[in-house]
Design a protein that fits this description.
By secondary structure, the protein is of the alpha+beta class. It has one domain: Cytochrome Bc1 Complex, Chain D, domain 2, CATH 1.10.760.10. Helix content is 49%, strand content 15%. Strands 1-2 form a two-stranded antiparallel sheet. Strand 3 and strand 4 form a beta hairpin. The protein is extended, with a radius of gyration of 24 Å. It binds heme C. The site of heme C (HEC) has 23 residues, from helix 7.
Length: 256
């Protein structure tokens, strides 16, 4: 009985999670944007780590990753690690924590910025990519912006100086409904860049892509090695299959 209750509670929590993440903005082409995750692109991961420390770590932690591990994996020498990535007073062996106290964060934003160690694994790299690209001006929100991927998000558009400020252009679209009668919904058509940022749209895409690459790496630091090893394992299996085949022929020749 107790297991049943636990299972039921787990299902409820899981479903609640699903409905919560389904709180997205108007439907449209943006929902198909995909991050080009290149986990083997070392330069991109290095840039992503630098961008993360400069623009995100003030609020977000990556609490399962140590700076020293980051340095080793991304080929960053200790002096550079200390000079550019370590916050004042931190040691290389520290985890990537945020200096922002949780209680203050809750008071300021209404909700504490989540730890981002596993964000690409829980919500997907494409989700993070869309989230960082779809902030748009909305004067009704406390931060002055809203987001297509996470409606009414508490996160301010911290990259607006780079991306600029954009408004969402919406149009009416008829969509089939369960009752058979089509319903009219507001759909996203495009963004209109009102105030340009310091980066061009293509450069901003790349900037966000690097960040996503870094977060994808942070979600499982060993994956780069695992993938490289995987190729050798498959090669070994192929060679071994050929060997085993000839060995079998050799044995069966005697039997026959
Ligand atoms: C000023 C503080 C602040 C900064 C800086 C900041 N964030 Fe956030 N972030 C937040 C808050 C607050 C939330 C919680 C939003 C919510 O739940 O509505 C959040 C949520 C998120 C989420 C999770 C969205 C979800 O679906 O739960 C992601 C991903 C994210 N931030 C990425 C970033 C990245 C990448 C950067 C750096 C470019 C960054 N954030 C910088 C405050 C910040």
């Amino acid at each position: 009985m107790r297991t049943k209750i636990v299972l039921l509670a787990a299902t409820f929590v899981a479903l609640k999670g699903l409905t919560a993440s389904a709180a997205i903005g108007p439907p449209g082409e943006w929902q198909h944007w995909q991050a080009e995750v290149e986990i083997n692109n070392l330069a991109s991961r290095q840039r992503g780590a630098r961008n993360f420390v400069a623009y995100c770590s003030g609020c977000h932690s990556v609490k399962y990753l140590r700076y020293s591990r980051l340095g080793t994996d991304l080929g960053i020498p200790t002096e550079q690690l200390e000079q550019f990535l370590l916050p004042p007073g931190a040691k290389a062996s520290d985890y990537m924590a945020t200096p922002m106290p949780k209680a203050d964060a809750e008071a300021w934003f209404g909700t504490a910025p989540p730890d981002l160690s596993l964000i690409t694994r829980s919500k997907g790299a494409d989700y993070v990519y869309r989230f960082l690209k779809t902030f748009y001006v909305d004067p009704d929100k406390p931060s002055g912006v809203n987001n297509l991927a996470l409606d009414s998000t508490a996160m301010p558009h911290v990259l607006s100086s780079l991306q600029g400020l954009q408004t969402a252009v919406l149009r009416n679209e008829e969509q089939p409904s369960e009752g058979g009668k089509p319903v009219t919904v507001r759909a996203w058509e495009k963004f209109q860049l009102d105030v340009p940022g310091t980066l061009t749209p293509a450069e901003y895409d790349k900037f966000v892509g690097d960040l996503v690459n870094f977060l994808q790496y942070a979600g499982e630091p060993v994956q780069v090695k695992r993938q490289a090893l995987g190729i050798w394992v498959v090669l070994f299996l192929l060679v071994f299959t050929v060997l085993a085949y000839f060995l079998k022929r050799e044995y069966w020749r005697d039997v026959r």
